[in-house]
Fold this protein.
Amino acid sequence: MTITHESPTEVLNLISPELRALLIKEVRKDWPDLTHDLGERGVNQMVAFLATSVRTDEPLTPSLRVDWFWHQFLKRSVPYVAFSRALGVDYIHHIPDEDEGGADPEAGRAAMAQTTAAIRTAGFTVDAEFWPNEGVADCSQCHAGCTDSPVGGK
């Protein structure tokens, strides 16, 4: 796997200001109190999550807030595929948790801890507002129940 954009700044800049604004506008439909600054930070956390997911063979799990941004990005397939390819993979798949019986809270906390640790290791900043295990994010669940596809997307 070859990642063509190594530094976190380069990766964050793969999302144009126009696309950022559109993603923020769309996420605001589910999160009406989302400010522009918080939206920018949310896009950055989504990018950090996705870029990190292609650097590891371990499945990573987004927080609910990060997942909202990811869902909006997935709907824009042309820039999403271009972003994935800029990271050296054909496509970063989104795999929902089909177990509607509820997630194991302990497993959720462990998944969040593993994900935020991987994001830090990849050189990105973890914004506590977006990750419940960081003690700030106001979420009603331990994890979003979705993962990336580090093996299938390469």
Notes: The helical segments are 8-12, 17-27, 36-53, 64-74, 77-86, 105-121. DSSP finds six helices and two strands in the chain. The two ends are 7 Å apart (CA to CA). The longest strand covers residues 95-96.
